[in-house]
Write a structure and sequence with these properties.
Length: 358
């Protein structure tokens, strides 16, 4: 910053935007170099932001999937476990906030948070196709007091219990409890999050599923017989792996090629191994968004439908009831010029689609 530039000028000219794909390596390098927790992979639905002043990077933020459990947050919202899991997607976690060196100016942090808040609802809707009602973050009291969040009008709810997430659940010993801050993005956030009608919250599909390790491993087997529309030259990922990841992402609530790829990127190494992902230099890598899109638009729809139905039958169980639902497919035109209609049968207990017919 030029010595003659005033702090007020910097704050008034500051801009916040999501990073471009070409900027991701720089973003991760800066976060790894300067944040005390280091870099963080994308967790579920994630948007990385940068704050810019006159083309100079000033700060970086990561907004990602909400914490699965947080007692003080859940009590403040007032929801129970029956609605909590399905509505966690309406909350985003500020998992990283970094003000870059030489930019630790008065009021800059709260200004960056305010600018992010002004645009994140539209960004989330455009990228992931659903509402965003609440922001949350966790502050380590051994290092920080959370003053920047208080200055940006976030609410401090209390402390976590101090248990850490580990590979098989939660740690048995208390580590360091974190301060919990939230920022409602709507004047009726709590009423919306506890609203009894899922359709009111744009949660129109079946509740998201959590796939087991066995279900992940069985998906590639179901897609193994589908003909690959690609040339054999230059193939890095088997078609069965690409289709398995796409199907799993959709079962877990993702919609759109970008969301499917982001979900794939958030997978850990164990999950990637179960899907049969390619191993490069000791690490499993997932297909790119281009590869996912290329395969999905070129495979035979009937073959895909039969494979998914075959996989569903392996995991179906006795259902207390079946729901039959039909809908008109947008922009899908039949041979006679009429719009295409699809009828599906969904199990109440498994949330699986047992069959569907045009």
């Amino acid at each position: 910053m030029n010595p003659t530039t005033s702090i007020r000028q910097v704050l008034s000219e500051l801009r916040v935007r999501p990073i471009e794909r070409s900027e991701e390596s720089r973003y991760r390098a800066e976060m790894s170099r300067h944040h005390y927790l280091g870099d963080l992979n994308k967790i579920g639905e994630t948007i990385w932001y940068i704050a810019i002043w006159q083309d100079q990077w000033v700060a970086q933020l990561s907004m990602s999937a909400a914490a699965l459990k947080c007692g003080v947050r859940d009590r403040w919202i007032g929801w129970d476990f029956r609605m909590q899991y399905d509505r966690l997607s309406l909350i985003a976690n500020n998992s990283r906030f970094l003000i870059l060196p030489d930019w630790h100016l008065p009021n800059l942090g709260s200004r960056v948070l305010a600018l992010t808040e002004h645009r994140i609802v539209d960004d989330w809707q455009a990228r992931f196709g659903h509402l965003l009602l609440l922001l949350e973050t966790f502050v380590d009291p051994r290092r920080f007091h959370g003053g920047v969040y208080r200055a940006a009008n976030w609410l401090e709810l209390g402390l976590t219990q101090g248990y850490r997430r580990i590979r098989r659940g939660y740690s048995s010993e208390i580590d360091s409890p974190k301060r919990v801050f939230v920022r409602p993005l709507h004047r009726t956030t709590r009423l919306q999050l506890t609203h009894p009608d899922r359709n009111h919250l744009q949660l129109t599909g079946a509740p998201k599923l959590m796939l087991t390790a066995e279900q992940m491993r069985s998906l590639p087997e179901s897609f193994a017989t589908i003909p690959d529309p690609r040339r054999s030259q230059g193939q890095r990922h088997p078609l069965s792996v690409v289709l398995s990841i796409a199907a799993a992402a959709i079962l877990c609530g993702r919609r759109g090629y970008k969301a499917i790829h982001d979900w794939a990127e958030s997978l850990g190494q164990k999950a990637r191994e179960r899907f049969g992902c390619r191993n490069e230099n000791g690490r499993y890598v997932v297909p790119s968004e281009f590869v996912i899109r290329y395969c999905l638009v070129r495979i035979e729809p009937d073959a895909l439908d039969q494979a998914i139905s075959s996989w569903s039958r392996k995991w179906e169980r006795d259902e207390s009831a079946l729901a039959i639902d039909g809908k008109t497919m947008k922009n899908a035109i039949a041979d006679d010029g009429s719009q295409t209609h699809i009828m599906s049968v969904i199990g109440h207990d498994s949330n699986l689609c047992h069959t569907q017919k045009k």
